[in-house]
Design a protein that fits this description.
alpha/beta
Length: 146
């Protein structure tokens, strides 16, 4: 009999860049709270200010982009609304970077039993694709951004 915990992939566009950062710290806390029942893996965008994440109750993976970090607007500690309100260069950068996040989500979801997305956009989109293409159960948590 296999007693391993079910694997949960958590998709988020915002996440702290280190111990002292509280950017969407409630996502980190939620991942920790689920770790008693699930093997939790969090996928967040990279952040040019991020440091190596210390050993925790969950695993943190940061996606990569073809854009250099210094010009990539899709960063874990940058407000997604800022990207949407930005100029054409910022929106183009996000449009270039976001597919890399989606690809990472799809690859990581292959080993997951369930997927949880924070915010309908941007992370609900790859979560819905994972549900449709891989048949993984998917839950979207819409915070206050709708």
């Amino acid at each position: 009999m296999n007693h391993a915990k079910p694997r949960l992939l958590m998709l988020t566009s915002s996440f702290p860049n280190g111990r002292g950062d509280e950017t969407c710290g409630y996502i980190r806390d939620f991942a920790r709270s689920l770790a008693s029942d699930f093997a939790v893996e969090v996928l967040a965008p990279r952040d040019q200010r991020a440091i190596a994440w210390p050993l925790d109750l969950f695993t943190l993976v940061r996606s990569r982009s073809i854009l250099p970090a210094r010009v990539d607007p899709f960063q874990a500690t940058a407000d997604f609304n800022r990207l949407l309100a930005g100029g054409s260069a910022m929106k183009t950068g996000g449009a270039i970077s976001f597919p890399s996040y989606c690809k990472a989500a799809m690859q990581r979801a292959r080993n997951a039993d369930v997927v949880v997305s924070h915010w309908m956009l941007p992370c609900g989109l790859p979560g819905a694709l994972i549900q449709r293409l891989l048949g993984k159960p998917h839950l979207v948590i819409e915070h206050s951004g709708a």
